[in-house]
Write a structure and sequence with these properties.
Blueprint: H1 10-20, H2 25-31, E1 33-39, H3 44-59, E2 67-73, H4 79-103, E3 108-109, H5 122-128, H6 183-187, E4 200-202, E5 205-207, H7 212-219, E6 222-226, H8 234-238, H9 250-256, H10 258-269, E7 278-284, H11 291-301, E8 310-314, H12 322-333, E9 341-344, H13 351-362, E10 375-383, H14 391-415, H15 424-436, E11 447-453, E12 476-481, E13 493-498, E14 505-512, H16 531-535, E15 542-548, E16 552-560, E17 568-574, H17 577-588, H18 596-606, E18 612-613, H19 615-634, E19 639-643, H20 650-658, H21 676-681, H22 693-703
Parallel strand pairs: 1-2, 1-7, 2-6, 7-8, 8-9, 10-13, 11-19
Antiparallel strand pairs: 3-4, 4-5, 9-18, 10-14, 11-12, 12-13, 14-15, 15-16, 16-17
């Protein structure tokens, strides 16, 4: 007999599907209800990074439809006042690159309404633009052709200049005023987010102003709750290195977050559903000494129910040394599993770092040479042109603020062995292994620290009234590390970070050894006055990955000088032009966010931990820098003074040369790809005798890409 197919009841089919075939995280998250709680929502980090990132995720359609943002802070604010704060933060993020360019005279206004809303804060934006991270902030989006004709899709969320500012007749109110149109009509229809007001142009590109109608809709998704500061013991306040965590503040923290938990529960009650999960994500944008009582309060009264997940995103610095970091890890482990903890490091969200992982292990060209036999030295550099004015920095210094987290995480990705798989735990295991293999730092011979002083009208670090006259917080540090394993032993890893330097730049520079038996000249000529002898040396090969101010990758190679003979000359092979264009296209089409915080927030929502730091990684990183911090604070390592706006202490250049780095520039190709360190360390006089070297390079750096003059004999 032929068997009959019996159709199962709907509830059975749904249960079978959800148990046996779970949806991918990025799809499931769009079906769930999400409450995104920003603890410390009125702070500087939330204003500069988190709120603009959340708004951009909303614009590009990556924020789940049932998402509510709850800001929590110590300031007493109403929802309306918090909306004003959020709107100002988002407008500032959109206006800062435009204001900076306008200050250079490179932008011309294209008219439009809405400019009066930002006029009052324009002076403030210009004044603060030097301290803002302009890396990749709202670049001119691609044109209709660039995105392959997908203007009728979600691409309209960011391509505001594709169509002229207009609204359908049905969207306009009875009085003919678009601002009086119903909010649902303005913000829910496809393409309604294309409104562009007050846009400005640079050449053929348009930099759109903040889309006000989208901002209004975004603000309806935000609420505010006040949190009274949890009680922290005097011993804990006095020393971040204390291994004991104060638990007496538990009841106070519970009460201070009660309003927050009530808001979350009301929002979840507005989204009923049999198979709807109600998830909660808490972003800790607050000092690390507040993590234990607040995390305990969330555990007791703020966890998700009915099968939803609860995740904590923890900002840096996580502790102030290895002891305090271990104490925080132990305390959090009492109530939270590691899979619920997301210790954020924004550099791991950079596209270039992901590209480093792929390029290392997917290319036969690079894999065999990634070792001590072929690589002479590695530089990991972070330079900022502005000073440090916050109390936070004076408590931590440049090593705790940048080097311990950002630069050591880059080192771990760059130097780790091939992970077992791309599983997040396998990647973090590989990073932990290499961090534990770093030798103890020779603080006497392999460390240079400094503080900037006043120069050309710029105030020095100690001129800030909030900084003590005897402060030993370093604003510059260079540390040379050695990794004791078979792959890297003997290769100097030069980590350099500083504030008030001559440029904004973060990059990785991997310098290869000279070719054995080089018949073209294996070292710079001693006679610098002889250009022919000097030109016989084309410099070492380098592989460079730049993170900011613009992401790019290139290689320094040696090629033949055009013409007769076989004269070797250095050149640069740029690798990232098409890659950057594809980044912009995907961002415009709503396929993938490009900026670090947007990517990391989305990873946290999807439960992907590969770009977050595990607790044992942090403890290993602190163990590397703790001896350096102790030596600086005790005075064993001197703080060298350097003028504001220069390259840092001269002792750093001497240390870099002593460990084997060779400074050599490429004088023919794009100047914007050359290292300013190399530019300042190299003498161009034999090659450009007729043109002052400083003027040539200064003008080229100011105007961007360009070709250098041809090589002439002196």
């Amino acid at each position: 007999a032929r068997a009959r197919f019996v159709r199962e009841p709907r509830s059975v089919r749904r249960r079978f599907h959800s148990d046996a075939m779970p949806l991918p995280a990025h799809i499931q998250s769009r079906r769930d209800c999400l409450t995104f709680v920003v603890l410390g929502a009125t702070g500087n980090l939330a204003r500069r990074k988190l709120l603009p990132a959340l708004f951009q995720l909303y614009l590009t359609g990556h924020l789940p439809p049932r998402a509510r943002i709850v800001g929590v802070g110590r300031t007493e604010l109403t929802d309306e006042q918090f909306h004003e704060f959020v709107a100002a933060a988002i407008r500032q993020a959109w206006e800062t690159p435009r204001a900076a360019l306008a200050g250079q005279g490179g932008l011309a206004g294209s008219g439009g309404s809405g400019g009066h809303q930002r006029q009052a804060s324009f002076h403030t934006l210009n004044r603060q633009s030097s301290s803002m991270d302009l890396d990749g902030l709202f670049h001119a989006p691609p044109t209709r052709a660039d995105i392959g004709g997908c203007a009728e899709t979600l691409a309209r969320t960011t391509i505001y200049q594709l169509d002229s500012p207009r609204m359908d007749k049905d969207d306009i109110g009875a009085a003919g005023d678009p601002d009086r149109a119903p909010q649902s009509a303005r913000s829910s229809a496809p393409g309604s987010r294309r409104i562009s007001m007050g846009s400005v142009s640079l050449g053929e590109h348009t930099y759109p102003a903040c889309p006000e109608h989208c901002l209004v809709d975004f603000l309806t998704r935000t609420r505010y709750a006040r949190m009274f500061p949890p009680v922290v013991s005097g011993a804990r306040r006095a020393s971040d290195s204390s291994s004991s965590i104060d638990d007496d503040a538990a009841s106070t923290a519970d009460e201070s977050l009660r309003q927050t938990f009530d808001l979350i529960e009301r929002w979840e009650a507005e989204n009923p559903g049999e198979n709807l999960r109600r998830n909660r994500l808490y972003y800790f944008a607050m000092p690390s000494e507040l993590y234990p009582p607040v995390a305990n309060a969330v555990h007791r009264g703020g966890r998700a129910v009915d099968g939803g997940w609860t995740r904590l995103v923890l900002e840096k610095p996580f502790g102030s040394d290895a002891v305090s970091a271990a104490a925080l890890n132990r305390h959090l482990a009492k109530a939270w599993m590691e899979k619920s903890l997301y210790r954020i490091d924004r550099y791991l969200g950079k596209e270039v770092i992901d590209n480093l992982l792929v390029m290392r292990f997917a290319n036969r060209l690079l894999t065999p040479i990634w070792n001590r036999d072929n690589i002479a030295n590695v530089q990991i550099i972070h330079k900022e042109p502005f000073g440090a004015i916050s109390d936070y920095f004076d408590r931590h210094g440049i090593i705790r603020d940048v080097l311990q987290n950002h630069l050591l995480q880059i080192l771990a990705v760059l130097a780790m062995d091939r992970p077992v798989s791309l599983d997040p735990e396998d990647i973090r295991d590989a990073k932990l292994k290499v961090l534990r293999q770093v030798d103890r730092v020779d603080v006497e011979h392999r460390v240079v620290a400094g503080q900037y002083v006043a120069h050309e009208g710029k105030l020095g670090y100690k001129d800030n009234p909030s900084v003590a006259a005897d402060s030993r917080a370093p604003t510059f540090a260079m540390i040379v590390l050695n990794i004791r394993n078979e792959r890297w032993d003997g290769v100097p890893f030069i980590l350099k970070a500083g504030k008030a330097l001559n440029e904004k730049r973060s990059e990785i520079r991997i310098q290869l050894r000279q070719t054995p038996g080089d018949i073209f000249g294996d070292q710079p000529a001693a006679d610098v006055a002889n250009p022919e002898a000097q030109n016989a040396y084309a410099g070492p090969n380098e592989f460079v990955l730049r993170l900011q101010p613009h992401e790019e990758m290139y290689m320094k190679l040696t090629i033949k000088e055009p013409g007769l003979g076989v004269q070797p000359v250095p050149s640069e092979m740029e690798l990232s032009g098409r890659w950057r264009a594809e980044q912009l296209r995907k961002e415009a089409a709503g396929e993938a966010p490009r900026r670090a915080y947007e990517r990391l927030l989305l990873d946290a929502v999807h439960g992907h931990q590969a770009h977050f730091v595990r607790g044992d990684e942090l403890e290993a990183a602190w163990s590397i820098v703790d001896p350096v911090n102790a030596a600086i604070e005790s005075g064993d390592v001197p703080l060298h003074e350097y003028p504001f706006g220069t390259r840092g202490p001269s002792q750093a250049d001497a240390l870099r040369a002593a460990v084997g780095h060779v400074a050599f520039v490429v004088p023919r190709d794009g100047v914007h790809l050359s290292s300013a360190d190399d530019l300042a360390s190299y003498d161009f006089s034999p090659k450009y005798a007729s043109v002052p070297a400083g003027d040539v390079w200064g003008r080229a750096m100011d105007t961007g890409p360009g070709l250098m003059p041809p090589t002439h004999s002196a």
